[in-house]
């Protein structure tokens, strides 16, 4: 208990340092000190990844000599490069119980001997998008393997390092961006860039202003064959923040939004503040972008703005409605482009906000397909074309059915059974996933009466909830209404949410989960293991169950790395009084391994594929 309280205090201190933009080196020192205090017999280090030459360099550590630090600069990553090099290459935890016996350590063995380092445990430091930032390692003075609580501590440190490193990368990117623009300003080149900055820019955000934005449009209107794609970004809920917290907070929020977009958008994008809470993005000519780039850019903007902003003493959450339009060849199409984008923004807001819409003009085949699916989804929702299949969750030891997961299927009148991978991403992007989720909840809760009667005993109904639906303020009342209408006991319903939901809005998620638990509904974390930075939430959230992602189960009987992670998660989760479910079980060997290591429930093709209700009741 004392160790846990100390960890919590350290994490809070480090998060405050990150929020208040304490120098990067101080934050790294605080994180490595946190681990060193909890593991006093060990040496810790953080190696940062440099994508320009695919190397790692040791930038922070506790108990590391200057000689060792200098030797661990520009270490090329690879599958056979000690522990950290291998971790960076595989992006998996690497445990080396005895450095002397590990061939991958041969080039560095003399350094380890000089430091009296006998073992090494390394975890990757990754962004939520799985981009590599570096590696975090703990060295032991004796040959050994980490205990489960040691791995948990390392993952927490990895999450903090990822947050701090990403913030530092954003700061440097912004600094480089501003320096580049200043050089362009004073070089007086006869290019459009000179026009953008000399006729110099929005004074609040330091972005190009509407005049520069329209100048670029006009220039392309006069060019033969040039074609642009424009994105109009309108912040949802900004007026409420501006009026409720004051214009000073509103201005600081706009500056923070501009900085985040400027640092993360692709180099092809021209970003401007058009006024108020509107930003414009132009993507170059036809030869300069692929069909996927506009959609990828829109998704990037939505993801960037979904992360909370720390503005003074306030933590602010916003989203955006985005309108996309592409100009046709020649002058007329480019000149009316933004009018089309405004039309698309209105449609995005009508769809429930926090989404994008593409103006329905002439489009490429991939865009037409996307729009067609979106239109057909509307018809499917209105025509009740969605059906629910069920996949059993079985007791690991007895294989007795303990629950079922409801999985949506689209029974298209012409296409037949449409795969979820084809329509779910579209539904997520347009907000239609909310209506689909409501259909699944309603149908599954009513079906449970027949399922329970067939089995002769109560079981749990698991329903996956999309992040968009879970964040809705009306979500809790919807759950209440479905339970009352179906007559299903709240104790029989279990809602599955992903780690990403908990990471993006921890405080709000905690309130939502607690309200559901007070109602009697169970909550489980789905796809656990895909986001290391949320491990600390297991202790704080009132959840019932953890579902280990299938990517860790696939080769659990052949990969000692995956086996170590799964074993550690089972042990850690049981210590917290939670149940563990393994997804994607497809072989007898996987079943036997998970059963032997105490996994509670199993789900996968080895036991049953998702089946219609009638087949489940046979």
UniProtKB/TrEMBL annotation:
GO terms for molecular function: cyclic-guanylate-specific phosphodiesterase activity. SUPFAM superfamilies: EAL domain-like, GAF domain-like, Nucleotide cyclase. The keyword S-adenosyl-L-methionine does not apply. Its EC number is 3.1.4.52. It is an enzyme of class 3 (hydrolase). InterPro entries: Biofilm_reg_signaling, EAL_dom, EAL_sf, GAF, GAF-like_dom_sf, GGDEF_dom, Nucleotide_cyclase, Rev_trsase/Diguanyl_cyclase. Residues 226-361 form the GGDEF domain. PROSITE patterns: EAL (PS50883), GGDEF (PS50887). It comes from the Bacteria. The keyword Nucleus does not apply. Signal peptide: none annotated. Residues 370-618 form the EAL domain. Keywords: c-di-GMP. Pfam families: EAL, GAF_2, GGDEF. This is cyclic-guanylate-specific phosphodiesterase. It comes from Marinobacter vinifirmus.
